[in-house]
Design brief:
- With 193 residues, the chain is an alpha+beta fold.
- The chain has a domain of 134 residues: minor pseudopilin epsh domain (minor pseudopilin epsh fold, 3-Layer(bab) Sandwich), CATH 3.55.40.10.
- The protein is 34% helix and 22% strand.
- The chain has three helices and eight strands; from the N terminus they run αββββββββαα.
- The strands form two sheets. The protein has a four-stranded antiparallel sheet with strand order 3-2-1-5, covered by helices on one side. It has a four-stranded antiparallel sheet with strand order 4-6-7-8.
- Strand 7 and strand 8 form a beta hairpin.
- The N and C termini lie far apart (117 Å).
Length: 193
């Protein structure tokens, strides 16, 4: 009787394992999927960044409008595209997002949690970088704010009569859309004799 044990490596029923060919094939498939998914993830991240900033601007426009109505006084939201911030001019008793007092100011940029940035601000035909809400909540001009992140853009546009903002997907920038997003000037020009 043979009592000698077979070595496990030599056994026909050794532990199952993957062959080198199988491992290489799986690695190639994962690499192809990652290559396809990476640009889509970047686009998704850009959209999320734009959505966060346009939502913040829209909410702050609503806050400025409600403060104007509550105070029965004009409230101006002024933008600085170079410094990447905007503030409520003359309103000093609202607590700022960072907890300090002074003009309500929102600093933008990655160091403040915003990957998207403000590229263009245009209100009215003069294309000023501020909008003022009166005591009835109406904006002094129609216009908007163009927000970009990567090659993705969106705009927050203001309806002058109601003072309410709306977010639109711009695709590519057109200054006429920001200066006159509702086509008021174009309609007036068509009606003129």
């Amino acid at each position: 009787m043979n009592t000698r044990k077979k070595h496990p490596i030599c056994s026909r029923h050794a532990h199952p394992a993957f062959s080198l060919t199988e491992i290489i094939l799986v690695t190639v498939i994962i690499s192809i999927i990652a290559t396809i998914a990476a640009p889509r993830m970047e686009g998704f991240n850009n959209n999320q960044a734009i959505n966060a900033l346009t939502r913040k601007i829209s909410l702050d426009f609503a806050l400025a409008r409600s403060e104007a109505i509550k105070r029965r006084a004009n409230v101006t939201v002024s933008f600085d595209t170079t410094g990447q911030f905007y503030e409520f001019v003359g309103i000093t008793d609202i607590t700022r997002p960072d907890g300090t007092t002074g003009n309500y100011r929102v600093n933008l940029g990655e160091e403040h949690g915003f990957r998207a940035r403000i590229k263009i601000v245009e209100f009215g035909l003069a294309k000023v970088q501020s909008v003022t809400f009166d005591a009835f909540g109406r904006a002094d001009n129609t216009g908007g704010v163009l927000v970009v992140c990567g090659d993705t853009s969106s705009a927050v546009v203001m309806d002058q009569a109601s003072g309410t903002p709306a977010v639109t997907d711009t695709g590519t920038y057109d200054s006429v859309i920001l200066a006159d997003p509702f086509g008021i000037a174009a309609n007036n020009a068509q009606q003129s004799p």
